[in-house]
Design brief:
Layout (H helix, E strand, L loop, with lengths): L12 H30 L5 H19 L5 H23 L4 E10 L1 H9 L5 H7 L8 E8 L2
Antiparallel strand pairs: 1-2
Helix pairs in contact: 1-2, 1-3, 2-3, 4-5
């Protein structure tokens, strides 16, 4: 937590201002974290890896906030938020495919790869999104695809 030096002329005047600003910043951080957790739970992740990465990031922010000197009810609410968000994202990740590397030895069109991997031509865009800056007609080398 960042602490600001007092600049008030009278003793204590600046301290009250700094305390009010610090409390406002703490409130804003907690509100932002609460909203970020709600957005994460409502996100349509493409892979379990993306959901788990989001979980790790949000858990890190929540853990840092929980280390602050908080009122008991705020600590309990943040702990409950962390547990609920973690459970939800773990459940979401369990239902999603994983990213996996794929070595394509010869230039292959993305449409052909979509059919060979998934028997679904509609997943061509997914392959191209996971492998940006590749020509759709000549995919070769190390690629990233979804496991299912």
């Amino acid at each position: 937590m960042v602490e600001y030096a007092s600049t008030g002329a009278a003793a204590g005047t600046g301290d009250a201002f700094v305390d009010a600003v610090s409390a406002s910043f703490a409130h804003l951080r907690i509100c932002a974290l609460t909203r970020a957790c709600a957005v994460a739970i409502d996100t349509d992740f493409a892979s379990a890896d993306a959901a788990e990465e989001t979980l790790a990031i949000l858990t890190g922010f929540l853990d840092a906030e929980l280390e602050a000197d908080l009122a008991d009810d705020v600590f309990t609410a943040l702990s409950d938020l962390r547990a609920a968000m973690a459970a939800a994202l773990i459940d979401i990740a369990a239902r999603l495919p994983r990213l996996r590397p794929l070595k394509v030895p010869a230039a292959t069109p993305s449409l052909v790869l979509a059919y060979e991997l998934y028997e679904d031509l509609g997943r061509e865009d997914e392959i191209l999104e996971l492998n940006p800056n590749r020509h759709p007609g000549f995919l070769a080398g190390e690629l990233t695809v979804l496991s299912q």
